[in-house]
Structure formats: structure tokens, C-alpha cells
Give the backbone structure.
Amino acid sequence: MADSVRMGVVGAGSISVRGILPHLAQPDLVGRVTLAAVCDPVPGRAEAAAEKFGVGQGFTEYEELLARGDVDAVTIASPIGLHYEQGKLALRAGKHVHFNKTMTLTVAEATELIELAAANDLRIVASPGEMLRPHHIRTRELIAEGAIGTLSWVSCGASFGTYHENESVRGGNDVLSNIDPSWYFRKPGGGPMYDMTVYALHTVTGILGTAKRVTAMSGVRIPVRTSAGVDVQTDADDNTVVLIDFGDNVYCVATGTAAGPIRGGFGGAYYGTEGTIDGLLLNGEPFDFPNRNPAELAPRGPGNQALLPHVVGAHRDIEEQHVYEDVMQLVDWVRDGTPSIVTAEHARHVIDIIESAYRAAATGQTQDLTTSF
């Protein structure tokens, strides 16, 4: 088994300050993970994060982290529109990469990174690892067993609401609590499809398999948002409805909207001729799965988050457990050669769905998908 993986954290924004850095700073990871470096372009932010979380070095420039940060791997937690270029630079520098969702914006970008990693014997883990959750595995089994009869269709998705404007790291008086959320609403990489619906698409494809084609309608519904008293112009689509064909006349309605969650959410609601699976409920009653917490019916509640393999002890009380889990999937792969099911190929297929949905909305034509996993 390899020594401790020296990790560089790329971006000291919301997901890092609330999740990645607090998790990786826990003493139970000594000997497995070393927080070697963090970078962020906002003056003083990387240094403040390094001091707060005991990180070896803080950098303003990403290229400087790669050159002088003394890291084996990076977790890329920057705005989504930067992921492709930053991932390519990391792989060219010989670093393993964990991508926070979404890995890239296009299939072509994802394919280039996959091929670059393979050519250099490097590992990619691409969030979100939704099929690490035991209730999703059980949902797939129940459908295959005929527990809801013949599957007819699925609903899933997410909405922005005011989630990002109201995060705890907004509107404060220091560099770690006044983080600007504007990028979530701007191109490239903004919008709920790449940021939130990606979870639902990973789940549904993990349960049903490869999708075949998509069509969609999409646009901007909330043209101006306000955060910390500052108006932000929205130019990334924030109101998208997608129809996905999984073959054999099984369809999924997936949403990435400005407001209003759809039934099923991140996990999906599965409608069959003899019943429905919605979250942790089969025909309205809790279904069993390994280590289920009987007190919880919310799939993403704190108890069921703890069913992720590495979420133990203090990690149960820190936000963004699923992101920490995906980082640890990469750590295990690097240290002991254990491949992860949180693959770049699965992420590429979900990117194919999103990219093709936007193309369908722009052209008015159904798009065939070109990837599988």
C-alpha cells in the first residue's frame, strides 16, 4: 500500500470550506491523506484556508500549486467551467484527479481527459458517486425483481431556489465567509443542470443504465439574482426540462429549474404498473437495504449519508459527506489499487445527456446520445 496521498485542494470556495477541507483535516486520516496545498485566486483566501485547516501551503495561482505544491493528487472544487482546463493541466503534471461535479461541460472534453489519464497511468474519480449509496443499489434490484411491475417512467431533478445565495459562506466579513456565488448563474458551467440535476442523472443512469436519446426545452427564467446586496445577471439557463429515452419505451422527465422540485428529486421516482418507488418508499412504505436507519425517510439525511463507506466518526457531523466520500474513493484507488465505481466514463455519459439536452432545446430536434459506461 502506498504512503499517505498528498492532496491539493483547487478552490477554497463553498464546497471546500464547508466540506472538503474540514473532512480532510480530521485526525483519523493521518497516514492516508496529507493536506499538502490549497489554491484560490481571491487574494488571501488560500492562505486563510491553509491556516484554518492546517494545509501545508497556500497558493493564489493554480499552476504554482501544481509546480510547487508537492501533491500526488488534486480535488478540483473550482467553478465547473474551469474543470476541463484545470483537469488537463493536472494530468499533464502527473497528478491523479478528483473532479467535483460536473467533470467537464462537453463529451469531447471528458473523452480527452479520460484518454490523457489512461495514457499516463493516472486515476480519475468524477463526482457525484450516487451509486455508492445502498438504497440506490436496492432500488435497482427492486425494479429488476419486478417489485413495481413493469417500469413505465421516471421523474427526477432539482431546482436552484435560493440555495446558493443563502449558504453559510455568503455575506460575511472575511475571505472565508464572503464567497461570491455569481458563477452558479453565469456561463460557462452555471445553471442547475450542471450543478444539481447532475446528481439525479447519475442516480437514474446508475439504476436504469445507458440512456439513448434526449429532447428538451430550456431558458432563463430569473434574469437577475441578488446575493449580499449585489445583483447578478443570469446568462446560464436556469429553467430546463428534459425528456430522456432509455430504450424500450421507458422514459424519464428530468428537471433543472429555477424553482419547484419535482417528485423523485436526486434519487428519482420510479413508476411501474404495480407500484412506485419514491426515495426510500416502496408503495408508500419504507423498503429495507443494508444498514438502513429506520428513523429516517430522507435519502440524503445525516444518518443515511453515513452509510457511505468512509463517512464514520466525526465525518458524520461535517457537511458534504458525499464529496468527501468521492475524494476517498480516489485516495483508496491511488493507495491500494482499488478501482472506484465513481468513474469518468459514467460522468461523461451524464455530461452527454446535459450537453445534448441543451442542443435539443436550441435546435428543436431530438438528440441521439453517443456514450455509454
About this structure: The first strand starts at residue 5 and ends at 10. The chain has a mean pLDDT of 96. The radius of gyration is 20 Å.
